[in-house]
């Protein structure tokens, strides 16, 4: 799984950029402050060596005029070389053009550390006009003439023969001249040191002020940036809450059950319709889905011709109650990895009831509730397509007095008669066959044989049916009618197909009517009368 943000993401830099800039600015400010303070410290150290060089040079020169020893002249030259080298460096920096190399060499000869020389040059260039720094530089510059006087005294003293064996008067003369220069240099050295100390304190105060101002500005920037981030976060969280509430209201208003599951098939969310559907009376979040219900297959009832495609799914609850449903599942994928799934369950109770009613209506007679001609022919075809060992017989039944009842008492009486006969036939046949109304006052019966029964059994059933109909009495609005039926019986083994079986049964039924009605006529291939009718 990759990072949520790429380093090239503009959104990432919008958040991190200002904070990173603040850190870098503070780091740069700290580094600059350290550089300034380091340069000030280098100047203090350099001033110390500068003052010491002057003091040593005056002391050596005074010793020379007191003793006349040439060694002290050499010491004087070595000591005076320090302030002279500093003067060379300062003059190089004050001259136009880039003379940093000359200044660096001068500061090095004056004994300054190599790491401090860069700070000395930088501070002189950029801070020499600062009030106290300018005062220190002025004192430094005013010492140039005194150094020249001191060198001139040294040269004169070196050429004075009287100093080879000096008298008290000679020593006093030279000491007075040296003392005047010493007093002036001491005053300038104090002035230089005083200005340099004040400059150090001024620079420190200025840096502290700048640091405080910048820190305050940075704190303000951080505060504004943080407030903006918090405001955006609040807006995002508010928008998310609104969208979540809208989604929950939308899901709650959906009539279908919506269930969101985690990757391990535990319930993460369930809308109100889903809670009603599975009859969940307690908190279901986090529970395994299998503990709430399971999905099974269930065929559609009401049709003799149900196939696998008309089998909706069945939601079975823990209490074994069930609801017909249709289920649609959609996987949840996050960053290319499965994160769960969404299950939408539609309650198919109404649709299934309608399908069953339509299936029943398509295969049954609306008046009597028996199978209709379409279903009867389907079952007849299925029986004739089966194993020859499982024989079957076909009966066609035609009511003899139906037209009299229908014409005398009306269609309502005729319909009632048909219902009465249908009940008689269904009760007599039971589960041994299929009873159907083929149209008008014509009924059909398909008797199934189990292999041990014979055609004579079918003949006995047909005779029993005839007798039951004859013995029944139809009464309508005070009028009583005797009814009877003519029955044609055909063994399916004697027919070449569905239409042939129906034709033979119809001919047999016609012969029963022709022979006086209220009788059973079996189809026999050897019957000449039947053969004539069939032909």
Automatic annotation (TrEMBL):
Regions crossing the membrane: 203-224
CDD domains tied to this protein: GGDEF (cd01949)
Keyword Glycosyltransferase: no
InterPro entries referenced in this protein's UniProt entry, alphabetically: Biofilm_reg_signaling (IPR052155), GGDEF_dom (IPR000160), Nucleotide_cyclase (IPR029787), PAS-like_dom_sf (IPR035965), Rev_trsase/Diguanyl_cyclase (IPR043128)
Record's keyword annotation contains Transmembrane helix: yes
Listed Pfam families: GGDEF
Alphabetic keyword roster: Membrane, Transmembrane, Transmembrane helix
Residue span(s) of domain GGDEF: 390-525
The protein, known as: Diguanylate cyclase (GGDEF)-like protein/PAS domain S-box-containing protein
Organism whose genome encodes this protein: Bradyrhizobium elkanii
